[in-house]
C-alpha cells in the first residue's frame, strides 16, 4: 500500500485553500484489522490526509521549497466514523504562514455531514537542523501532479495553476512504500 | 489600541486553542509550561496566533528568548550571572523579574513565562505600532 491519504484535489487555490477527496474502500488492508467485521478508517489517517492536503498547499505556496513538516495537531475533533463507501472531502484553509511555519485549518465532510475538524501546524525545519532528507521539490511536484492540483488549481491571480518556472524538468520522485 | 482586559481575553482564547486547556485554567499568573503544559513547539504556535490575532510581527526570540540558557557568559553553575541577569532585563522588560532575580537558578527560569508576561509583551508591542 502506498502512503497517499487523499486521492485527488477537487479545488486548489494557491496560498489560500484546497478541497481534496478521499474515497474509503474495503480494498484498503488496514480496514480489515480496524476493526475485524466493522471497518472504520482510523482517525489518525484522516489527520494524515489533512497533513498531506495542507502540506501540499503550503509547499506549492513556497514554490516547492521549504522544509515544512507536521509539527503539531492543535485540534482534532471527530463527529462520526468514516466507513467503506464514504467519500471524504477535506477542505483546507491556509490560515497563516511565515518563514518559520504555517497553520492550516481543515474540515472533513461526507456529503453534507461534518465528520471532522482538524488543524495542522507545520514547522519549517531550518537547514542544519535536519537529521535526514525531507520532501524535496521533486516529491512535492509529483504529488501535486498525481493528485490533479494542476488540473483544477488556480494561482493567486486567478489564472490556471502552473508548475513554478524552472521546475518543469524537475525529476519526479514518487513517494515510497508505506512507512518511513 | 485594545484595553488590557481585551488583550487578556484574546491571549486567553489563543492559549485555549493552542494548548487545549480550559478557559478557567488560563489565569494571569499561570505559567505556560508548568501550569498549562506547553511544550517547545507550542511556543511557535503561540507566536503565530498572537501575530495573527493582534496583527503584529514578533521577531524570532523576542517574546521567548532562545540564547540565554546556552551562553556561558549568562549562565554558570546552574545560575544566571550578573551579566546574564542584565541581559535578561534587556531582553525581557515585559517579564516580572523580581522574584527570579532574588534566586536566579535555571530551574526557576520557566516560571517567568506566564500568561501575564505575554499580555505585557503584547501591550508594549501594540503601543509601538502606529494605529
Describe this entry's structure for a reader.
The complex is a heterodimer of chains A (180) and B (131). Chain A contains 3 helices and 7 strands, in the order ββαββββααβ. Chain A has helices at residues 43-61, 137-146, 149-152, and strands at 8-13, 17-23, 68-78, 87-98, 101-110, 113-124, 153-154. In chain A, 31% of the residues are buried. Chain B has 131 residues and is mainly alpha-helical. Chain B has helices at residues 4-19, 40-54, 82-91, 98-102, 115-128, and strands at residues 75-76, 79-80. A two-stranded antiparallel ribbon of chain B has the order 1-2. The radius of gyration of chain B is 15 Å and the shape is globular. The model of chain B has no long low-confidence stretch (mean pLDDT 93). The interface between A and B is medium-sized, with 12 and 13 residues.
Which CATH first-tier class of the largest domain in chain B would you pick? Mainly Alpha
Helix content of chain B: 40-55%
CATH superfamily annotation of the largest domain in chain B: ACP-like
Largest sheet of chain A: 7 strands, mixed
User: What strand order characterises the main sheet of chain A?
Assistant: 3-6-5-4-2-1-7
Q: If you compute it from the alpha carbons, what radius of gyration of chain A comes out, rounded to the nearest whole angstrom?
A: 16 Å
List the helices and strands and how they pair.
The complex is a heterodimer of chains A (180) and B (131).
Chain A: E1 8-13, E2 17-23, H1 43-61, E3 68-78, E4 87-98, E5 101-110, E6 113-124, H2 137-146, H3 149-152, E7 153-154
Parallel strand pairs in A: 1-7
Antiparallel strand pairs in A: 1-2, 2-4, 3-6, 4-5, 5-6
Chain B: H1 4-19, H2 40-54, E1 75-76, E2 79-80, H3 82-91, H4 98-102, H5 115-128
Antiparallel strand pairs in B: 1-2
Helix pairs in contact in B: 1-2, 1-5
Amino acid at each position: 500500500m502506498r502512503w497517499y491519504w487523499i486521492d485527488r484535489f477537487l479545488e486548489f487555490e494557491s496560498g489560500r485553500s484546497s478541497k481534496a477527496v478521499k474515497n474509503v474502500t474495503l480494498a484498503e488492508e488496514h480496514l480489515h484489522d480496524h476493526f475485524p467485521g466493522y471497518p472504520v478508517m482510523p482517525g489518525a489517517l484522516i489527520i494524515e490526509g489533512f497533513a498531506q492536503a495542507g502540506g501540499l498547499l503550503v509547499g506549492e505556496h513556497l514554490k516547492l521549497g521549504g522544509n515544512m513538516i507536521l509539527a503539531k495537531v492543535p485540534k482534532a475533533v471527530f463527529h462520526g466514523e468514516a466507513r467503506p463507501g464514504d467519500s471524504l472531502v477535506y477542505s483546507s484553509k491556509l490560515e497563516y504562514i511565515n518563514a518559520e511555519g504555517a497553520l492550516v485549518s481543515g474540515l472533513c465532510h461526507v456529503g453534507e455531514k461534518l465528520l471532522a475538524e482538524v488543524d495542522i501546524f507545520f514547522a519549517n525545519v531550518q537547514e542544519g537542523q535536519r537529521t535526514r532528507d525531507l520532501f524535496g521539490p521533486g516529491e512535492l511536484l509529483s504529488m501535486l501532479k498525481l493528485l490533479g492540483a494542476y488540473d483544477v488549481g488556480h494561482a493567486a491571480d486567478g489564472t490556471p495553476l502552473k508548475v513554478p518556472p524552472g521546475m518543469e524538468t524537475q525529476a519526479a520522485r514518487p513517494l515510497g512504500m508505506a512507512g518511513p | 489600541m485594545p484595553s488590557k482586559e481585551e488583550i487578556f481575553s484574546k491571549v486567553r482564547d489563543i492559549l485555549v486553542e493552542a494548548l487545549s486547556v480550559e478557559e478557567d485554567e488560563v489565569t494571569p499568573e499561570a505559567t505556560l509550561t508548568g501550569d498549562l503544559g506547553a511544550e517547545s513547539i507550542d511556543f511557535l504556535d503561540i507566536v503565530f496566533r498572537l501575530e495573527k490575532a493582534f496583527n503584529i510581527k514578533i521577531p524570532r526570540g523576542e517574546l521567548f528568548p532562545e540564547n540565554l540558557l546556552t551562553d556561558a557568559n549568562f549562565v554558570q553553575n546552574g545560575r544566571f550571572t550578573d551579566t546574564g541577569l542584565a541581559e535578561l532585563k534587556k531582553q525581557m522588560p515585559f517579564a516580572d523579574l523580581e522574584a527570579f532575580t532574588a534566586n536566579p537558578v535555571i530551574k526557576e527560569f520557566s516560571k517567568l513565562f506566564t500568561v501575564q508576561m505575554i499580555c505585557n509583551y503584547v501591550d508594549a508591542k501594540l503601543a509601538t505600532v502606529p494605529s
